[in-house]
Amino acid sequence: MTSTLGNVYRSFVVIALGGLLFGYVIGITSNVITEQQIICKANDVTARPGSMTSFGYGQCYELTPLTKGFMSSLNLIGACLSSLFAFSYGDTMGRKLEVQVAALLYFIGSLGTALSPVLWGIYVGLAVYGLGIGFAMHAAPVYIAEISPANVRGMLVSAKEGIIVLGMFLGFFTGYAFNGLHYGGWRYMVGIGSIFSLVMGAGIIAVPQSPRWLVLSAVRDRGIIQDRRNSLFEEAKQALTFFRKSASTEEVNSEMSTMRSEIEESVGTTPAKCTDPLNFPKPLIIGCGLVMLQQVTGQPSVLYFATNIFKSAGFGNTAALSSVGVGLVKLLATLFTVFRVDNYGRRFLLTVGISLMIVALALIGTAFIFRVCNEPNTALKDCSADHIGLPQGWAIATVIGLMIYVSGYQVGFGPISWLMISEIFPLRVRGPALSMAAIVNFGFNILMTLTQQILQDAFTPAGVFFGYLALSILSLIFVFTMVPETKGKTLEEIERMMSGKRQEARGGPIEASSSPLELLGEEAIWALAWVPVAASQRKWKSFSRDTSVPAGPHSLIARADERDPHAPSETSGTAGSSLSSSQC
Q1: Using CA atoms, how far apart are residues 429 and 272, in angstroms rounded to an integer?
Q2: How far apart are CA 286 and CA 419, in angstroms?
Q3: In the chain, what are the helix, strand and coil shares in percent, each to the nearest 5?
Q4: How confident is the model at residue 108 (pLDDT cuts 50, 70, 90)?
Q5: Three-state SS for 136?
Q6: How confident is the model at residue 542, as a pLDDT?
């Protein structure tokens, strides 16, 4: 298997470098935007405070909490902007070109930031780096999923999350290594990213385009001359041969034939419009729901309190290294998911991971009720942040809770959310749909970052953690009721399953439920979920006549008794039929 998929694994490493660079900037940010690096330390006679336009390499800057938050968020803001661009043009560019553009933006952003002698140039460089994140995170999960066979697809797409965590590790250690170079070490931290981007840009040259994207382009562009279409099909075959290195010609031809017939049947002949993902409410609600819940269940706040939690537990000056310990736990949990996701399945790991998060948040929230002020005769509300701590027993409990939470997140939401997104959307709208999910993800990430302190001031840390606990319970219900299992299925089989076709999938036919309500229960749930969307667009009447959109829940239940539970379920029409008439 290793020799057969050697080129897949090597290609994965190059593509996943985009994730490593994302994780790397997360890891170095706390060491860059800190005192005696980019921020001036109070009463430091060696500091040379600068302004937005002052020129010089030994400068530091007196940033307000708002400007510090803005600088920390520039990467995410850039990622949102490039995700919006990829939303409209990602499928036209192709997966390989997106990775190449990401590598170029990473290089310009990291080197530009490191070499900028003015503050506004630093801002621009960080934003450009963020643009690279958006393109890399849009292309990577789809590219990896489309070049991987079904039996290792889950492992490889999940491994991308492991590469992001590895990037965080590199960022932590790079920050630690250069932290002693006051008011200049941050330039080395940021500049090192340009080295990885060069490797990424050089490596992707040798990786072919996604064969599925090439076939999609050939099928969609029926208006081009026949020789061009034949050339695209031939290029797709050569790419598939590259990714199935030791496979026989017959095996490659068989996979190519299946891929072509499935794509021709489902995608239609016109490029996806910006609103086409809305024609697939089921995967859209699943995908956007997962990445939204991934952000609002507390990871930013839990990690924000990591250092204080270790200080309260008595780790003293070594608390600054807590990020390394947390990173190690994140990496180990991610590696477990990477190597077990194709055995245990997506739903099971999501359930286990979210359950661990619920236990951890309950423990941390309870512990924070018992916060105390270490200043004599000072009330907690009047106590400075540096003197607020926890009793020793509760402090140790929060350290345990922190590690449980990080493990649960990396077993479930961390890797599985993006894996599901790369699988559940039909090929024709996979690019725009992934952009939608990325925009939701980055948007809620920015929202959580900017409102974190506001929420803590309004509800206290304990109240915020209990709020995250409630959202985690909601997440568990969401997984139980909405998220399907895609383990072991090809992308084409998943597309049939998500579009409502009850055809034979790998391992045998899909079993029908014995109860009429169970038989139609999933369809009824999706009909109910789709009602607000339809109502908001004032198109319910037209939707009810369109067989590609769920019928009303009551009519579905009324039809339950008329359906033979042992007969194949009715199809709701092919994806191509509903998409061919869609307009932006």
Answers
A1: 6
A2: 12
A3: 75, 0, 25
A4: very high
A5: helix
A6: 42
β-strand pairing of 372-373 with 388-389: antiparallel
Distance CA 557, CA 312 (A): 56
Contact (Cβ atoms closer than 8 angstroms) between residue 6 and residue 150: no
The continuous run of DSSP H or E covering 389 comes out as strand 388-389
What's the rounded Cα separation, in Å, for the pair 135 and 19?
10
- Give the β-pairing of 49-50 and 60-61: parallel
- Mean pLDDT (whole number) for 216-221: 78
Give the single-character DSSP code of 39: B
Lowest mean pLDDT among 102-116, 133-147, 257-271, 283-297: 257-271
Give the least confident one: 76-85, 202-211, 303-312: 303-312
pLDDT greater at residue 110 or residue 226 = 110
Higher pLDDT: 450 or 331? It is 331
Residue entry with tokens 């661990």: 356
Handedness of CA 242, 244, 248, 251 (dihedral sign): negative
DSSP labels, 193-227: HHHHHHHHHHHHTTSPPPHHHHHHHHHH-TTS-HH
Q: Could you tell me the end-to-end alpha-carbon distance of the chain, in angstroms, rounded to an integer? A: 44
For residue 370, give every residue at least 6 positions away whose Cβ sits within 8 Å of its Cβ, in sequence order, or none.
Answer: 390, 391, 394
Q: What are phi and psi of 568, to 5 degrees?
A: -60, 145
- Position 500 scores a pLDDT of 64
Nearest 5°: phi and psi at 305?
Answer: -90, 0
In whole angstroms, what is the distance from residue 561 CA to residue 550 CA?
Answer: 18
Residue from 556, 477, 572, 476 nearest 518 by CA: 556
Which pLDDT band holds residue 66 (cuts at 50, 70, 90)? confident
Q: What is the mean pLDDT of the chain?
A: 78
Give the H or E element holding residue 182.
none
Q: Which residues of 534-553 are buried (b: 16+ CB within 10 A; e: fewer)?
A: beeeeeeeebeebebbbbbb
* Residues 23, 416: Cα–Cα separation, whole Å: 17
Residue 430's closest CA among 220, 156, 228, 252?
A: 220
464 burial class (0-12, 13-18, 19+ CB within 10 angstroms)? buried
Torsion angle in degrees (nearest 10) through CA of 572, 574, 576, 578? -10
Q: 338: which DSSP letter?
A: H
Q: What is the pLDDT of residue 366?
A: 93
SS3 label, residue 548: coil
Supply 88's token pair.
């409209």
Q: Is 425 helix (H, G, I), strand (E, B) or coil?
A: coil
Tokens 């920390």 sit at which residue? 72
Give the Cα separation of 110 and 98 in Å (integer).
Answer: 18
Give Cα 304 to chain centroid, integer Å: 20
Q: Give residue 127's pLDDT.
A: 96
What is the DSSP secondary structure assignment for residue 270, as one 8-state letter?
A: S
* Least trusted range by pLDDT, from 327-341, 485-499, 552-566: 552-566
Residue 546 has pLDDT above 60, yes or no: no
pLDDT exceeds 50 at position 550: no
